[in-house]
Amino acid sequence: MSAHTIHTTGPGKAISRHEFGDRPEGLLGNPAASHALGAATLAAGYYATAQLGEALAFPDAPVSALWLPNALVMATLHPALAHGLDGFGAIAPGYRADLVLLDDLESFDPSLVIAGGRVAARGGRAEPFAAPEVPAHLLQTVRSAPVTESDLALGLEGAARARVIEIVPEQLITVAREEETGAGLPDAGRDIAKIAVVERHHATGRVGVGLVSGFGLQRGAFASTVAHDAHNVVAVGASDEDILACARRLQELGGGCVVADGGAVVGELPLPVAGLLSAEPAEEVVARLEALHELLRGLGVAVEAPFMTLSFLALSVIPALKITDHGLIDVERFEIVPLAVS
Fold first, then answer.
1. Helix (H, G, I), strand (E, B) or coil at 175
2. Where are the alpha helices (DSSP H) in 155-275?
3. What are phi and psi of 160, to 5 degrees?
4. What is the pLDDT of residues 200-251, one digit of tens each?
5. What is the pTM of this model?
6. CA 140 and chain centroid, separation
7. What angle do CA 120, 126, 132 make, to 5 degrees?
8. How far apart are CA 23 and CA 336, in angstroms?
9. No. of H helices and E strands in the chain?
10. Integer Cα distance of 322 and 330 in angstroms
11. Which of 65, 90, 189, 306 has a Cα at 20 to 30 A from 38?
12. Which helix (H) or strand (E) holds 179?
């Protein structure tokens, strides 16, 4: 096993730490210049980091052609400098001992991970550690106003056509399409489910409702409080009864992921820390999430990562049609648009 400390002055040029002294600032002249250079190199850093990703994706490519040393420093020292994180991002006296030891630069498999001077993982497995106490203000953060069936009404009376969010499997983008209301919506036969976003931070009572296609859901509902970026309650369902069951249970749990069928919750993953995180071991969280995936497969859902897909349907900055607690958002025009097509 060998360890190397490499910093760079720009694309294609790498120097070792001993060439500029014990502190990385020696490379840049002074702290003010360090911060300025860190910010100035962010654009190059994104490129270098992309090259590192390419190196991992194409391990047979020549490392020298991918600027690997530059990619490493762009992912460590330069972001720390750009954000003014003194004592982070380098191996140097007085710096925080956050280290990853690799057997080689081809496989990139970590043999040892040290966080704050303590061994955090060894041989691919986390070392035991005492879980910190969760601050009280991060618990019970689902503060939605009570949701009723009337809040989920689509308001399509008299409308011949409606806007539908069509998901693109394994992508963050969606397709904005229109469908005839026909005999009524949602319609499992046409793979069109209802989607609702419930504001959960200030009990405003705001609920945005719409229609979504592509999950394959035939019955039941599923919901989560992981919904970028506002992290409201987002739910998809074939029936209002099951959407309401999900919303109630998320309020009780303080956040998480739930699945309902027949008006009752049939599976759940509590995420009580801000409605986003669990204090349980990672292995348990993964097992419970996979159990929810299995339940959803039984309800007809065919997408690979349904909760991940769900979490981005409320992100109203990625095209084309998304939904928030304010309603449907035409991202390309940055406008709130009605569900009914006039």
1. strand
2. 240-253
3. -90, -25
4. 999 999 999 999 999 999 999 999 999 999 999 999 999 999 999 999 999 9
5. 0.74
6. 21
7. 65
8. 52
9. 8, 18
10. 7
11. 65
12. strand 174-180
